[in-house]
Amino acid sequence: MLFAYMLCSGLQSEHAELCLIPERPDQFSVPVRIESLEPTEAAVFRVGPTEAITVKVDPHDRGLIIEPFPPTKIHITPDLPQYPGVNVKKLKVLKLAERSYRTLFQQEKDRNEEWREWVPYRDK
């Protein structure tokens, strides 16, 4: 699944929303707004027919920790030839204000489990 900003149309305006987008959607799949996620301490959250996540709250900073449920992979952008995106082991999303977030991630290769900041856009 892809973790990215997606354009959403509302009654008043269009704006970008941070979403999880299923890689292989079916008739029951829609992009899932990060804003709508609830902690799922003992359950999985279905995103697509073969994609699911768990959502927990970090007790230290109240950020949402999103983990893909195997075999799901979460891919983050930028997905450009000069700056390819990466698959991540975990995401942490901290809400700063309305539709404003700070996102951190961990990859499998991160042995010390330090969080790195996600930069969704880079200049060419």
Written account of the structure:
This protein is mainly β. It has one domain. The protein contains no helices and 11 strands. The protein has strands at residues 2-9, 14-21, 32-33, 45-48, 51-57, 64-69, 74-76, 86-88, 90-97, 100-106, 116-117. The strands form 2 sheets. The protein has a 6-stranded antiparallel β-sheet with strand order 4-5-6-9-10-11, with no helix packed on it. A 5-stranded mixed β-sheet has the order 3-2-1-7-8, with no helix packed on it. The model has no long low-confidence stretch (mean pLDDT 85).
Strand content: over 45%
Helix/strand order, N-terminal first: EEEEEEEEEEE
Mean pLDDT: 85
**Main beta sheet strand tally, sense and closure:** 6 strands, antiparallel
The total count of helices amounts to: 0
Residue share in helix? under 10%
Low-confidence stretches: none
Provide the structure class: mainly beta
User: What spatial form do the alpha-carbon principal axes imply?
Assistant: globular
Topology, number of strands: 11
Radius of gyration: 14 Å
Q: State the strand order across the main sheet.
A: 4-5-6-9-10-11
